[in-house]
């Protein structure tokens, strides 16, 4: 396609209200993110109804700001892409309803985007990086290993059978009194801890070695904390945080190593909120050096939820002719 394509992305699947304008799927002209963390913090996690209401309150301003920052009017936008699955249903409905109204009023094609796919597409923002590659998507709701053969051509090689990696970070952080969101809090505490002080077990899943399981690890940390408290032993939060983080990172890296060997991948990529984790990046860098393959990490701002990645995905769906009609619905679960 020779003509430039400007995509407006809209993301409201969880606790970030975000809108972005991306040129030709790659160049980020704006990426406005309104985080609701403050509203949910006191409850120790995302409260779905509060999230929906906050999206409703902010969506118009966030989209307006994204257009303003890109120095564009809605007339100049070519495509509107919106996350329509998976996520909190009430939260998704705000974005989808808004995008439908805007698409109808401005007469622009509408594209429903899978949020997990969006995380993978974050790898293409502001770079020339391209498929094929092996991608580990680790977020608050998902832990998936994908073989990315081409744009829109993904095959799941492994996934979590219980908790997602981010969920484990959030639950352990809560038990340690580190607050929400847990990932960044654990990372920070871990910097002052000894990651070899406690050995936490990570489940190996018999028969499907590329799947993950983090609920046993979470329980092991909770049991350890209870046992130490019962014995009257003071727990060093930083050591627990560091040891837990090491266990998660090792499990993610081990399955990824297996997957690289299985499909003979020559390039590795990370995606999702947990991909912001410095210890995980360090381990993946080491893994890529050990295996003699390339590795790519999206900038941190594109790892956690944002609309630029949705606009990027929307652009490639658009090139593929995957345009949604006005019956576009929102779904809590993923279609893959
Ligand atoms: O992708 P994301 O923003 O939202 C979902 O799609 O779920 O991921 C959020 C998750 C949360 O569980 C959060 O604790 C985790 O990503 N996270 C991190 C870090 N930053 C965010 N986990 C570990 N280390 C981090 N630096
Ligand atoms: Zn996400």
Structure, described:
Helix content is 43%, strand content 19%. It has 336 residues and is of the alpha/beta class. Strand 4, helix 3 and strand 5 form a beta-alpha-beta unit. Helix 2 runs parallel beside helix 3 and helix 5 runs parallel beside helix 7. The longest helix is centred in the last third of the chain and has 27 residues. The radius of gyration is 20 Å and the shape is globular. 5'-O-[(R)-(carboxyoxy)(hydroxy)phosphoryl]adenosine binds next to helix 5 and helix 6.
Q: Please state the average pLDDT score.
A: 96
Can you tell me the overall shape? globular
N-to-C span = 29 Å
Task: Compute the number of strand runs.
Answer: 10
What's a quick, concise take on this entry?
The chain is α/β, with parallel strands linked by helices. It has helices at residues 37-41, 48-69, 89-106, 115-121, 165-175, 182-191, 215-230, 237-263, 278-291, 300-303, 308-319; strands spanning 6-11, 16-23, 27-35, 79-85, 110-114, 133-138, 143-150, 153-159, 267-271, 294-296.
